[in-house]
Amino acid sequence: MAGLGREEALARYPIPAFRHDLDPFTADGGESQAAIRARALHALELVWNGGGQRVLLVTHGGFGNSLLRELLGMQRGWFAFGDTAFATLRLSRGSHAAYVIGTNLTPHLPCPVQ
Description:
A hairpin with a 4-residue loop joins strand 1 and strand 2. The relative contact order is 0.10. This protein is α+β, with helices and mostly antiparallel strands. The protein is globular. Helix content is about 30%, strand content about 15%.
C-alpha cells in the first residue's frame, strides 16, 4: 500500500469493519494483529536485551505503531507517521519505562510534513 493515499488504499484493499485479532489483515490474507504484535514484542525483546545505548529501528508506520503500542501498553491508538518520519524514544532499563520524546518527526525534510 506504500505510495497510495488512504482512500485509494482502502478502496483497493478494504479492511473489514470488524475482525478478530487472530483474523488475517484482509480477506486475501496477510498477518493478523496478533502475529504483528508477537513480531513487535520479539523485536523489542531483542533491543531490550541487546544492551545497546543507541538503537535504530527502520520499519514502516504500521509496524512502528505496533512497536509503540506494545512499549506503552496500549491496545488501541494510532501514531501518525508520514513518509520518512521517525519517532524518538528513551528506554530506561532501571525504571522499566519507555519515554516517548517525539513522533512523526521530519527535521530532515526541507518542508516538514504536518
